[in-house]
């Protein structure tokens, strides 16, 4: 029973790798953003991380001004 489950898992992973349209071995190939333009990448990181870090402060300010 376990051997059959392992075989099904193995063929599933083989098919997943085979049909994932990835050539493999290229760093950053599977990321949803490009790594070629360093300034655009820096701007994306500032916006992404900055919005996550600033959100609690904006929520706190909103709650304090609501009173």
TrEMBL record:
Pathway(s) of this molecule: Energy metabolism; oxidative phosphorylation
Cellular component terms (Gene Ontology): mitochondrial inner membrane; respiratory chain complex IV
Subcellular compartments: Mitochondrion inner membrane
Chief location: mitochondrion
Coiled coil: none
CDD domains linked: Cyt_c_Oxidase_VIIc
Gene Ontology biological process terms, A to Z: mitochondrial electron transport, cytochrome c to oxygen
Cross-referenced PANTHER family: CYTOCHROME C OXIDASE SUBUNIT 7C, MITOCHONDRIAL, CYTOCHROME C OXIDASE SUBUNIT VIIC
The protein's name: Cytochrome c oxidase subunit 7C, mitochondrial
